[in-house]
């Protein structure tokens, strides 16, 4: 049975005057924490902030009670651009009516102190690393956190009629659309299926039907591979994709449907065939030679992960900074301006950009890119790939969110894993994901999410898989991808579909996952999830709690997870299970009105979930049940706050 615990998460339910998205340096913000009366109750509460490196304690006042919770509020000065804080709770134990002789009823027996941070509740001191945090940085555009993202690998999405007239490049192995993808070896990067941008334009109705708001395209520049992360120029769109005009037309058509379009940019490296690198290699005295890291005799150079085709940029070069970022017609700037009008960038290997050995220019480069992007379009989005612990680099100061796998994708794979020893588990030496229980999923998720501000958490990409990973359908138990999609859409963050997820496509690694879309081959559709994704996309538009509400975990044990997204006006409860499971949700964790709402049918479900009106005899609550891998989403009344 879920146990109610003190709670704060940094959302607008707990941060006000001003709202968490509009904090400025020097503001005094009001921070709230709710404490279940049956847990303590707390006798005193303080907010502990770190101001100019020094801890400070400000006493909270008790606002009042609502639905079995005591609400406390404290004022905190935002003294630094990243304002860290936690709560210190005092619980006083007193003598009851059976007090020993000489001891007055109500006299103090003892006190205990608890720290509440973004990782959880601790009866001990904890590191500042997982403290809650408010930031004074410019907020990301609202469309990003409210959107549903769809990732397209252009070579494998759709071919237009004009693609038939394109010659096969000399580096490529021509493949028919229904030919199997090779997942390993040199041919993995050279198979050429000929998908193009007009082909994507012709499928925008499909994206609309799925509820997509953001189209994210992997690189579009000419290259010598099908993935195009080895650009040979940044000045034009690959003619094989239709050229510059095809991008103009795709973006215009997407915008007409209310869909934003984001590009993918390699700020860490170019391709070895890039015009800059060709000149740099030929002329050690050239300006371009300074764009890269060459040995003293110019006979070797640094590259991404030792891959010779991906020479690494040297960001100490002022000329590179101008040409790539700050010039009027720089790489970063040009494609955000008309006539192309991209709505933002995803920066490839953002975590590695500007870093080599003792050199660390990562945040300098990120700041330059962010300033340039926002100077062109303050409503543009800027995300960065950071595959491991992204929080130290993604504060919201420059990158607004991360394409990361550590806080959701990896633990979700492990919770929903089947025996899939042949899959690539994010480059680790493990023979596939290690199967874990719900409690370890939650511990990992909270551990790796705690370092983000609430604003950044809402902008991080929630992906079941991407073009760089195995497919969820290969990794997870039968029914697992549908359950995982519910979590990706309902937890804080931007849900991401990689093209083909809606058809249940499989793949044991990133290359194997880049399967051509089965538009005209219904026999290749493994599991038609289009209706499920469309419903989840609609729910994010219909239930504001899913795109802005706080998150409170009610249960995480073994085979089942339960959490609630909360606003004062409305809430949403999510129940997910990987096998047969039952969870009692009682009046200690939800209000009576919310418990009653659980008796209605879920707004979305997969598998088989039920919620009877009552729990077992003698229990004041609702019993959620699942048969096999299942999930449900219920719309609930909002959370009452005293004084509101």
TrEMBL record:
Pfam families: Alpha-amylase (PF00128)
Identification of the protein by name: Alpha-glucosidase
EC number: 3.2.1.20
Enzyme class: hydrolase
PANTHER family, per the entry: ALPHA-AMYLASE FAMILY MEMBER, MALTODEXTRIN GLUCOSIDASE
Annotated InterPro entries: GH, GH13_cat_dom, Glyco_hydro_13_lg-like_dom
Superkingdom of the organism of origin: Bacteria
SMART domains: Aamy
GO terms, molecular function: alpha-1,4-glucosidase activity
CDD domains registered for this protein in UniProt: AmyAc_CMD (cd11338), E_set_CDase_PDE_N (cd02857)
Keywords: Glycosidase, Hydrolase
Domain Glycosyl hydrolase family 13 catalytic: 151-540
Species of origin: Paenarthrobacter histidinolovorans
